[in-house]
Amino acid sequence: MPVEVRLSDLIRLGVATADEAEGSVKKLAKRLTKEGIIVSYRQGTEFFMLSQKANRDCIFMNSDTRLCTVYEKRPDTCRQFPAIGPRPGYCPGYSK
Ligand code: SF4
């Protein structure tokens, strides 16, 4: 599922700097899009959509281990899952 992140997440992930965040967010979004880190930025908001691999995995997921490669720095959306999301309380890892 696509992951929506904020500027603070991008800074924690190390893909953006605090200086960039204080400057032009549009310019930052353009760079991150070019580098394949995000696919979109909702102008006027602080929300960015992380890119996905061809199989729709998150770009930060290790395809072999199926583990997060940025776990300690993962976005707030991931930290709050499954409390917040399209199906609050539902975790596919526990479904049968
Ligand atoms: S926990 Fe890691 S791999 Fe999973 S969606 Fe978040 S950043 Fe991507």
Question: What does the secondary structure layout of this molecule look like, with pairings?
Answer:
Layout: E1 4-5, H1 7-13, H2 18-22, H3 25-34, E2 38-41, E3 48-50, H4 76-80
Antiparallel strand pairs: 1-3, 2-3
The structure holds iron/sulfur cluster (SF4).
Which descriptors apply to this entry?
96 residues, 4 helices, single chain, alpha+beta, 9% strand, binds iron/sulfur cluster, globular, three-stranded antiparallel β-sheet
Q: Could you explain the architecture of this structure?
A:
The protein has one domain (4-86). The two termini are 18 Å apart. 28% of the residues lie in helices and 9% in strands. It has helices at 7-13, 18-22, 25-34, 76-80; strands at 4-5, 38-41, 48-50. The chain has a 3-stranded antiparallel β-sheet with strand order 1-3-2. It is globular, with a radius of gyration of 14 Å. The longest helix has 10 residues, at 25-34. By secondary structure, it is of the alpha+beta class. The structure holds iron/sulfur cluster (SF4).
